[in-house]
Amino acid sequence: MHRYPVAPLAQLDPSKPTAVQLLGLDLVLWRDAEGQWRAFRDAAFRDAAFRDACPHRLAPLSEGRIDRSTGNLYCNYHGWQFNGSGACTDIPQQPAGAPPPNAKRSCVTSYPTAVSEQLLWVWADAGPDAAAEAAAAPPRGMAPEVDEFGPDGFWSTKLFMHGDTALGSWYQRYCNASYIAVKENVFNDPSHDTVLHHGMGGLSREKAAPAEVQHYSMTDEGYSVTRLNASTGRTVADHTLFPCGVRRNFAGEPRAGAGVGYVVPLSKGRCNMMIAIVRDPKFAFQPEGLKGLLSRLLPPTPDWVNHMLLHDVVDADITMQHGLDVNSAHAKGASSAQGYMPAVGVDQGPIAFRTWLRKHGGGGPAVANILDPTAGVSVWAGAANGLGVGVVVLLALAAAAAGGVAGWAGRMADRFVFVDYDEHHTSKN
User: Fold this and answer.
1) How many C-beta atoms lie closer than 10 Å to residue 296's C-beta?
2) Phi, psi (5° rounding) for residue 237?
3) Any idea what the Cα angle at residue 312 is, between residues 301 and 371, rounded to 5°?
């Protein structure tokens, strides 16, 4: 059993519950009165109910609220309340202080949680020994710089400046593509970068080149591949730690800069991808002259700006990965390498991924091989949560400014799905 990251803390509102999925389970995340993040699922119907449900009438607890006076999770259907351990503490239709009619059936299952690298992690088991097992197995993180340096551990940017460009926080994307298709790609397949992402960030299909494998190793926990690009002379070192982590060191000194990714199975043909660029701040780029002055005066680039730019890159990835899922579903299946004809060297990462799954991973997590070839490629991007009405107004103003900007703003606005769980409804206050 493992811990899985389910969401960046920046994407969670501690004042209300949030619905998430993990390994086919619907969970509700919320923060209790002691400041501890909780992950709940229904306990009374352990074999049949996979939703975040109140045991009373199976109403979704994610549509509830946090009671201001008790700090408990409050079901918004009939008012039942649950404390951090999952026990029902109040049924307003019963006499004050009366216990629940069935203490065992009236509680909800609680999964152990932990916070690391500014991510919320959930232990994917709720058995009687889950708390002790989770305590003995801390999150297997790949970005220690975030815990060590806080926000300075991210490779952040300055507003409207070039040269020191990267993500200043976790980028999250819910993908209609399987765990296997996405995990095989994220910081594991550098040869696709110049081709699929041609024209983005200086990448060009003309720069596609052979790669020499300088190091390759595999254990029952993961594998490492180091390659030398024959064209640029650049060394790329990728380290994969199962079930979901990967880290790409960009330079000879690992702490000088690295891309970190987590790919987490959600449900049938869907996964949650979270990526960040991290480094030790002592390696931060220090511009000189006017740029140096501006870098000290200007605020960091807002997250939503970086995330909007990254959407263009990830859109291409997801389209290809969904197509891979569809083709694999009609052929040998996503966990089989029989439908592949890899090129030795440049494809050492994908080869290692398939090899590890076959030898050590049992084919991958339970829901990883379940594909849905009929699903579309629509996605939900976590960055949209932070946009709100103000950004819509800004995009509208930009659209009015000029035809070219209007087209760009329209395309960017189309990339987002604005989700509002009726948060302005009076029952949520």
Assistant:
1) 10
2) -115, 115
3) 125
Write down the pLDDT at residue 158.
54
The Cα–Cα gap between 252 and 241 comes to 20
Structure-token pair, residue 336: 């089989």
Spatial separation of the C-alpha atoms in residues 245 and 382, rounded to whole Å? 19
The count of other CB atoms within 10 Å of the CB of residue 14 is: 14
Q: 275: helix, coil or strand?
A: strand
Estimate the crossing angle of helix 403-414 against helix 388-401, to 10 degrees. Answer: 150
Q: Give residue 80's identity as a one-letter amino acid code.
A: W
Q: What integer pLDDT is reported at residue 157 of this predicted model?
A: 58
Cβ atoms of 394 and 387 closer than 8 Å:
no
The answer for residues whose C-beta is within 8 angstroms of residue 145's C-beta and 6 or more apart is 153, 154, 255, 258, 278, 279, 280
| 233 Cβ neighbours under 8 A, 6+ residues apart | none
- Mean pLDDT across 372-394: 44
Give the full edge-to-edge strand order of the sheet including 25-31.
18-22, 25-31, 37-42, 108-111
Query: Strand runs (DSSP E) across 108-244, as ranges?
Result: 108-111, 113-116, 119-123, 171-175, 211-218, 222-229, 235-241
Q: H helices within 272-383, ranges in order?
A: 289-297, 303-329, 348-359
Mean pLDDT of the chain: 77
- Using an 8 Å Cβ cutoff, are 131 and 109 in contact? no
Q: For residues 263 and 310, what is the distance between their CA atoms, to the nearest angstrom?
A: 17
In this structure, what token pair is assigned to residue 160? 């409207």
Omega into 151 within 30° of 0, i.e. cis?
A: no
List 171's β-bridge partners, or say none: 275
41: part of which helix (H) or strand (E)? strand 37-42
- Residue 167's CB is within 10 A of a number of other CB atoms, namely 21
List all residues 6 or more positions away from 16 whose beta carbon is below 8 Å from its beta carbon: 30, 65, 66, 423, 428
53 forms bridges with which residues in the sheet? 60
Q: What confidence score (pLDDT) does residue 406 get?
A: 54
Q: For residues 115 and 147, what is the distance between their CA atoms, to the nearest angstrom?
A: 10
**3-state DSSP helix/strand/coil % of the chain, to nearest 5:** 30, 25, 45
Residue 69 CB-density burial (10 A; 0-12 exposed, 13-18 middle, 19+ buried): exposed
How do residues 97-153 score in pLDDT, each as one tens digit?
A: 777 777 777 788 889 999 999 999 999 888 889 889 999 998 989 999 999 988 878
For residue 223, list its beta bridge partners: 218, 240
